[in-house]
Design brief:
The protein is α+β, with helices and mostly antiparallel strands. The protein contains 20 helices and 41 strands. The strands form eleven sheets. The protein has a seven-stranded mixed beta sheet with strand order 29-32-33-37-36-35-34, sandwiched between helices. The N and C termini lie far apart (92 Å).
Length: 797
């Protein structure tokens, strides 16, 4: 929408420059997309008096004129037939830019010319090219032609949000600026001279679609004279990009741009039986509109018709059959309001966008229709004459109700985070055009004005209060709460990157699942993962609960990959799982990461045979993740998860807290998910990993300056003793010098008694302060053997 600075000043005494107004409107929520300086290119076109006119010596149709601009005299060659001595003309001097042409000193048929006397067409003021501009001889010289024609203006192209139809007119914007600045608003108050005959005797209105036409008013004027609009009216319309048509049509457009409410004028004598019928169109009914296009309507369209045919598509575009022409004598002024949904659908259906539809689509006020019709009648009487019949015909079946909102001072302070004086709050509310109907302690009861349908909740008023108070007046607080925990954010990203580096692809699934999957995984009835959050309107049975495990969705993803020929599957997902509270709302939302792996452990390579993935492949992935988190106290224990195969499953612990599991999926359970090959899976509680990362900050350790010494040890031990227990026992002998203990062989078979196994470990000794001797390491090694014999009854090999 375009806003004229000059026009705006008719309603409010703006004390700031056009440039400053841009910032004021933008901060008020009226976004200025472009600024146009009208008449700027005409500032150098000045008024000059033709002192003397002589015939051109070598051209009969040219004249040589001496002109005076109040300061200097110029010789100009002119070919206009109306060029007259002692008259005032528009002079473009040498150096003036006219469109794409820059005037230069020229010699025309042998005579020097130092400028040009211009016509209205050459200056873009009109299409008149019959002669140059001629003004009375007493017109002040030296003035800019832009000032004389009153076209110096600043026009703003603004974007109005759909919830603010109250800003779609000049007076509307002025009202908002008045609230912002405290300057008084000068609202036009229409004064009508009416005959004693009521309009209802001339016009009949039948509203057959009250749900789509919430109000329809009609005024009747008899004996108008259709002619060109006066200059002031044409200037106002041209300033905002509208083309003048005739005085009556121009008034309806003027009022629309002034008050923000669209109107339409019908030729009364072209309405069959002088009746207006608001109805839905018949399916297939046709109408020729003002754009000269014929439209075939549907039953969803609303039309304004006479007793026989449609005369307009309601709220969108008028019909050609009842338009105002030079022969029009009697008119009907329509000022109505239509359902915004109806107008929007019709406009979209026929690809029609007009100034009227743009406004009706944003839900106009029913009450404003009466004022707009009255204002239009007043101006039409001024510019077109005629007799206005008394009153107006009004179809208003369901009057717009007033809206009362409770506003609390305490709530305003809580939401905004600052204390605004109570008196200021009341002043802001009144400045918006609202009425305070009751005040009781902390509470205010506020009645919203009819044109502010967007003020329907307490929070809407709070938003308006801070807007008027000024966002720039909100004090800056030095202390702030970070929007996010950067440590956790980047760690989550690192964990995802680590899984990708391990060859996994990330899956993203809906966070929904089915209780049947929990049955397939044999989850116990008293398991917290059975405490599901149910969905009231699920897409289907398989989406009836919020997921409490990520694994089922990943298994479905694996099946999809297998069915599409991808046999080597590595998938992971990091997402939330949910458990229910007593009122069926999520009591816990825990971020977890789950992964599945099946197929070959590596790509096919001609130098070596491929191997299927196994438990240790998945264990290696988990340990990579744990190392990424921190060098903390992680351990493993035999898993009790019912869906993992015994002997190939482990639970992961941090100190004494379980943080996840890994292992091979039970064969029968895998088959229930339509997977007939070994599947290995892992699941980690990311929330715990994040907290571990925060507790165990990474510290710099210098590269050792002294050499390390390694020793290998092999022994037979009972199967009931875990590798983790052995490693812990070895490290406790001397934690400072024993840097690592790793198993490199695990043998069970011929030569080893049942219930036992042979294990081989590599132990690395390193001091950060001195070089270790073989003798010292040997003593330390003997101590390790003694501890292992006493604690685990090992038998050396």
């Amino acid at each position: 929408m375009k806003i004229s600075y000059n026009w705006l000043k008719e309603y409010i005494d703006i004390q700031i420059s056009p440039e400053e107004l841009v910032d004021r409107m933008t901060f008020a929520g009226i976004e200025v997309e472009a600024v146009e300086k009208k008449g700027e290119d005409l500032q150098n076109i000045v008024l000059a008096k033709i002192l003397k006119k002589d015939s051109h010596p070598d051209a009969d149709k040219l004249s040589v004129c001496k002109v005076f601009d109040g300061v200097n005299e110029y010789q100009v060659v002119c070919g206009a037939p109306n060029c007259t001595e002692n008259k005032v003309a528009a002079l473009a001097k040498v150096g003036t830019q006219l469109g794409d042409i820059k005037l230069k000193k020229a010699k025309i048929r042998g005579v020097q010319s130092f400028g040009m006397l211009c016509s209205e067409k050459e200056l873009g003021l009109s299409d008149d090219h019959d002669g140059i501009i001629m003004l009375p001889e007493d017109t002040p010289l030296g003035q800019s032609i832009a000032d004389v024609y009153n076209i110096s203006d600043t026009v703003y192209d603004v974007e109005i949000t759909p919830n603010r139809p109250d800003l779609l007119g000049m007076l509307c914007v002025a009202r908002d600026l008045s609230a912002l600045t405290g300057l008084p608003l000068k609202e036009p108050v229409p004064v009508l001279t009416e005959s004693s005959i009521p309009a209802s005797e001339k016009v009949k209105v039948v509203n057959n679609a009250p749900e789509k036409c919430t109000r329809y008013t009609a005024r009747y004027i008899e004996g108008v004279k259709i002619q060109e609009s006066p200059t002031w009216l044409k200037e106002r319309l041209e300033a905002v990009g509208l083309r003048p048509v005739n005085n009556v049509v121009d008034v309806t457009n003027f009022v629309m741009m002034e008050l923000g409410h669209p109107l339409h004028a019908f030729d009364y004598d072209k309405l069959d039986q002088h009746t207006i019928v608001v109805r839905t169109a018949a399916d297939g009914e046709k109408i020729t509109a003002l754009d000269n296009n014929e439209y075939t309507l549907t039953e969803d369209d609303l039309v304004i018709a006479d007793a026989v045919k449609p005369s307009a598509i309601a709220g969108v575009i008028g019909g050609a059959g009842s338009q105002i022409t030079e022969e029009t004598v009697n008119i009907v002024i329509e000022s109505a309001n239509f359902s915004y949904n109806t107008v929007r659908r019709t406009g979209n259906r026929y690809k029609i966008s007009t100034d009227s539809s743009y406004r009706f689509e944003r839900d106009m006020s029913d009450i404003n229709a009466e004022l707009a019709g009255k204002r239009a009648a007043e101006l039409i009487l001024q510019v077109a004459g005629g007799t206005l019949y008394a009153g107006f015909v009004d179809s208003y079946p369901n009057p717009q109700e007033t809206v009362n909102i409770k506003l609390r001072y305490s709530r305003i302070e809580h939401v905004l985070g600052l204390k605004i004086p109570d008196e200021d709050i009341k002043n802001y509310i009144k400045a918006l055009g609202c009425k305070i109907t009751e005040e009781n302690g902390d509470d205010l009861i506020v009645e919203s004005p009819h044109f502010r349908k967007d003020l329907a909740r307490e929070i809407d008023y709070i938003e308006e209060i801070i807007r008027l108070h000024g966002y720039n007046n909100v004090p800056v607080k030095k202390d702030y709460n970070p929007v996010m925990n950067h440590t956790k954010f980047y760690l989550k990203r690192e964990l995802q990157d680590q899984m990708v580096q391990c060859g996994f692809f990330e899956a993203i699934n809906w966070p929904y699942s089915s209780p049947d999957y929990l049955n397939q995984l044999k989850i116990a009835e008293d398991d917290i993962r059975r405490n599901n959050v149910t969905i009231k309107n699920p897409l289907g049975a398989q989406y009836s609960i919020m997921q409490s495990m990520i694994l089922p969705n990943l298994l479905k993803n694996a099946v999809t990959n297998i069915n599409n020929g991808n046999k080597n599957v590595r998938l992971f997902e990091m997402t939330k799982v949910f458990s229910r509270s007593n009122d069926n709302t999520p009591a816990h939302e825990i971020l977890e990461m789950c992964g599945v792996m099946l197929g070959e452990s590596s790509e096919m390579y001609w130098k070596s045979e491929t191997q299927p993935v196994d438990f240790f492949d998945m264990k290696g992935v988990v340990e990579d993740i744990l190392r990424k988190t921190a060098e903390a106290e992680f351990s493993y224990a035999v898993s009790v998860e019912p869906f993992l195969q015994k002997g190939q499953a482990a639970d992961v612990y941090y100190k004494k807290q379980k943080i996840g599991y890994l292992g091979k999926l039970d064969t029968k359970i895998a088959e229930s998910f339509d997977i007939d090959e070994p599947v290995y899976c892992m699941n980690l509680d990311v929330e715990i990993l994040l907290s571990i990362r925060e507790q165990n900050k990474a510290e710099f350790t210098a590269i050792p300056h002294f050499p390390s010494i390694s020793r290998d040890i092999s022994f037979v031990v009972a199967k009931s003793v875990t590798v983790k227990e052995i490693i812990d026992a070895v490290k406790k002998v001397n934690p400072k010098l024993i840097k690592s203990v790793s198993v490199f062989d695990d043998y069970q078979g011929k030569g080893i008694e049942d219930g036992f196994r042979s294990l081989s470990f590599k132990i690395i000794f390193l001091s950060e302060t001195k070089t270790l001797t073989d003798g010292y390491v040997s003593k330390l090694f003997d101590k390790i053997l003694s501890v292992l014999r006493n604690k685990f009854e090992i038998i050396m090999r």
